[in-house]
């Protein structure tokens, strides 16, 4: 059968009946067509350039300051997200309108401060309950170019930013034009900071990013933008280095004795071995706290060698002098750093002191014996 030559396509087409198939002839009715899969319409943004003229919006858009921006987002309903500066707008420059098939956002008299990311979220609704479809959101970063303002205006002369260990830190030197050339500078000593794209990088929509902050990155920094003959400086950023740990501490707790007699002294030690220059705070929960027994601790921080590496040992010792029966129970130590807290517990059993018999005192001589001692002896 496999060696048979296929008939000529033309001949095969001629033999194909023009009428209905056999199954159709018997029933006299056509077979129902398969229902088409329901697809969600694609969401996209368009800019209204002039009345009747539209253009599709890409990742970025540049609009001259003072102009009116009108965006349309396909979908019903949709919800808009705008830069924080516009969320507090009380001048009526921003308004949104929902139409039958699309939503409109209109921003009148745009300024350089409006520069930022604009987002349209299609909404999924069941009856009156609606929620954003984040996976179908459409975003555009809009530059509102102002020939007199190269940076987005800020009311702060200084902005304090924490540098966290191994945590990318952004310096939001946001420009109003994607064509501006931006450099990073240190105030003291005055110098330009090298931007190599690995340790420090620049994105025209985000500013500078320090990917792995170190101690030497701390200080006062600022940005300089230049476009044509215009050159301007940004807000100054005071970078404060904080050695953030990679994880919460792991405390280890140990009592000087699991079972102790009344009247003796007890020590409960809580130790954390971790990264250097990381502050660890300790708190205690102990049975004597319920009756108002004061907390006495000895805290220390030392550098120790662990597996050939310098590590920090943070330690606290809870001192319980002259243990009483109320000191019986669970002792919990909680260690906390900037990344979180963990606890460790141990139980101490208090026993009554054993009763020992007192030694008998030697009997003192009776009065009769004293009289006998004092009686004179006759000498013959």
UniProtKB/TrEMBL annotation:
Basic and acidic residues biased stretches: 1-27
Stretches for region Disordered: 1-43, 344-380
Keyword Hydrolase in annotation: no
Keyword list, A-Z: Immunoglobulin domain
Composition bias type Basic residues, residue spans: 358-370
Name this polypeptide is given: Platelet-derived growth factor receptor-like protein
Organism name: Cirrhinus molitorella (mud carp)
Keyword set includes S-adenosyl-L-methionine: no
Self-association state and partner proteins as the record states: Forms a complex composed of PDGFRL, TNK2 and GRB2.
Segments forming domain Ig-like: 248-349
Pfam families referenced in this protein's UniProt entry, alphabetically: ig, VEGFR-1-like_Ig-like
Polar residues biased stretches: 344-355
